[in-house]
């Protein structure tokens, strides 16, 4: 048996284990609930959580919540991405901007952005704006850091070659900087997606009357732990799903590297 065949079988084996382990955990959880080992008022059985999900899907509340939460994430992600990539590019290309812009950026980055919620409420009220801005703030820093670092790590020999060939600034930017920086920027985008959903969980606790966070808050008032856990599962699935989309785009955009 060749080493390659063994490797393929090994990958399949561990892939099966990765898929099976969550299923086994759910079965143990369900069994523990059925035997009374896990109190239902503390942690409902998976079957009860699934029933709560079916209830929310059936009455249309989940679809409405997903639409509202999705819009908040998209708006915050777009705003934060534009700011993060633009600043990272500018600072990466200019030593002067690095000396003047990067220090205050690092100071702001050191602040826990979720700790700014009270200040955002005072500044922007309790409507949609503070929620979107919180997401944008959390999203911007991973993209800023990755873009800045990616540009500074571009091979200097490429710039020397471009200078010999007489490339203009925009030609160097389009043909050298963008392709070289793209992999690390996409990594930053994946990090930003995770932060966007994490931020949204907290941001939607700000007097929200729509969205997944509202469903969770409302369920808390009525002691519906099953709906609370289902809402958290939805957040997790959204994060995993959007990350998978970005990874697929990353493979397609960078297929020339394989």
Can you describe this structure?
The chain is an all-alpha fold and 258 residues long. It folds into two domains: 1-38; 42-257, MetI-like (MetI-like fold, Orthogonal Bundle), CATH 1.10.3720.10. Helices cover 81% and strands 0% of the residues. The protein has helices at residues 3-34, 46-58, 61-93, 95-109, 117-124, 128-152, 156-164, 169-203, 212-221, 225-253. α2 crosses α10 (225-253) and α5 (117-124) packs across α6. The longest helix is centred in the last third of the chain and has 35 residues, at 169-203. The mean pLDDT is 83.
Layout of helices and strands, plus pairs?
Layout lengths: L2 H32 L11 H13 L2 H33 L1 H15 L7 H8 L3 H25 L3 H9 L4 H35 L8 H10 L3 H29 L5
Helix pairs in contact: 2-10, 3-4, 3-6, 3-8, 3-9, 5-6, 6-8, 8-10, 9-10
Give a quick set of tags describing it.
single chain; mainly alpha; membrane; 258 residues; 10 helices
Helix content: over 70%
Counted beta strands: 0
- Compressed to H and E, one letter per element, the order equals HHHHHHHHHH
The total tally of domains equals 2
CATH architecture of the largest domain: Orthogonal Bundle
Mean pLDDT: 83
Radius of gyration, whole Å:
23 Å
Structural class: mainly alpha
User: What is the terminal-to-terminal distance?
Assistant: 27 Å
User: Strand portion, in percent?
Assistant: under 5%
Count of runs of 4 or more consecutive helical residues:
10
Summarize the main sheet.
none
CATH fourth-tier homologous superfamily of the largest domain: MetI-like
Shape: globular
Transmembrane segments: 76-96, 108-126, 222-246
Family: Belongs to the binding-protein-dependent transport system permease family.
Protein name: ABC transporter permease
Pfam family, one: BPD_transp_1
């Amino acid at each position: 048996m060749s080493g390659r065949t063994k490797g393929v079988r090994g990958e399949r084996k561990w892939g099966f284990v990765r898929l099976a382990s969550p299923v086994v955990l759910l079965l143990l959880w369900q069994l523990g609930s059925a035997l009374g080992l896990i109190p239902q008022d503390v942690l409902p059985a998976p079957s009860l959580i699934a029933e709560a999900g079916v209830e929310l899907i059936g009455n249309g509340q989940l679809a409405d919540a997903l639409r509202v939460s999705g819009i908040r994430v998209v708006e915050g992600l777009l705003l934060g991405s534009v700011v993060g990539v633009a600043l990272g590019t500018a600072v990466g290309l200019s030593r002067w901007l690095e000396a003047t812009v990067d220090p205050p950026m690092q100071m702001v980055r050191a602040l826990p952005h979720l700790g700014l919620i009270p200040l955002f409420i005072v500044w922007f009220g309790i409507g949609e704006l503070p929620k979107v801005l919180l997401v944008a703030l959390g999203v911007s820093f991973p993209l800023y850091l990755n873009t800045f670092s990616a540009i500074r790590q571009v091979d200097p020999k490429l710039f020397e070659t471009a200078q010999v060939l007489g490339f203009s600034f925009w030609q160097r930017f389009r043909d050298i900087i963008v392709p070289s920086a793209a992999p690390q920027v996409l990594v930053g985008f994946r990090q930003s997606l995770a932060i966007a959903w994490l931020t949204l969980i907290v941001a939607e606790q700000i007097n929200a009357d729509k969205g997944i966070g509202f469903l969770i808050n409302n369920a808390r008032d009525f002691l519906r732990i099953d709906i609370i856990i289902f809402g958290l599962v939805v957040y997790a699935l959204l994060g995993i799903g959007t990350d998978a989309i970005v990874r697929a785009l990353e493979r397609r955009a960078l297929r020339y590297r394989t």
